[in-house]
Amino acid sequence: MEIDETEVWSTTIALFRTRGVHRVFLKRLAHNDNDKNQIYLGPSLDGLASTLGARLGPGSASESATKQRSAQGVAKPVAHLQWIWIGDGPDVLAPAAKLIYYFQYPEVRFSGFLSGCRNPPDALRKRRVNDYGDRLLLFGSNGLSVFGMVIAAPPGESLSDPPGATSSELSDCLLKLDLERSRDT
């Protein structure tokens, strides 16, 4: 079944706009990005946490002792998010969603995105990942909440980036789409 990407992007952008989001970030997901493995979002919390309106706090203590920047016993910084999934039905809260900064690597990973969520995106489940082709994580904040969505192609099929997407200054693995500039989409 052929995907009409123009319609997909038009609908997707409209869904974010109606929630007051002005800038959407896009992460092309790797095969191992799923509910059993956290999703890599970049090397630093700088900019990302504030852009998403996260509440910073201490997380669990680092257990790492072998990496160059290890500090065993030191709490890993955590950015708690008011994350809401946009899906086929009503929007659903992901109450455990957070960004964890692993200073020993350094890297930021998105975690807890399905925990306690009533109707999470199926394409993020480890046991279902082979049921999909390309998968894209999209997210943006309206200043109060972060809205996220996963777009997934059928098995073996790919998805193009949305028209107007550019590299993000927050991370080299993210693209951004300014919804104010993409009115024609």
The N- to C-terminal Cα distance equals 23 Å
The counted number of beta strands is: 12
Helix content percent band: under 10%
In CATH terms, what is the architecture? Beta Barrel
Share in β-strands: 25-35%
Question: What best-fitting shape do the alpha-carbon axes yield?
Answer: globular
SSE pattern, N- to C-terminal: HEEHEEEEEEEEEE
When the domains are counted, the total is 1
Task: Please give the structural blueprint.
Blueprint: H1 5-17, E1 23-28, E2 39-42, H2 48-51, E3 55-61, E4 75-80, E5 83-85, E6 92-94, E7 98-102, E8 107-111, E9 135-141, E10 146-152, E11 166-167, E12 174-178
Provide an overview of this structure.
The longest helix is centred in the first third of the chain and has 13 residues, at 5-17. This protein has a single domain (5-178), classed as At1g16640 B3 domain (Beta Barrel). It is mainly β and 185 residues long. The mean pLDDT is 88. The two termini are 23 Å apart. A seven-stranded mixed sheet has the order 6-5-10-9-1-12-11, with no helix packed on it. The chain has two helices and twelve strands. The chain is globular and about 50 Å long.
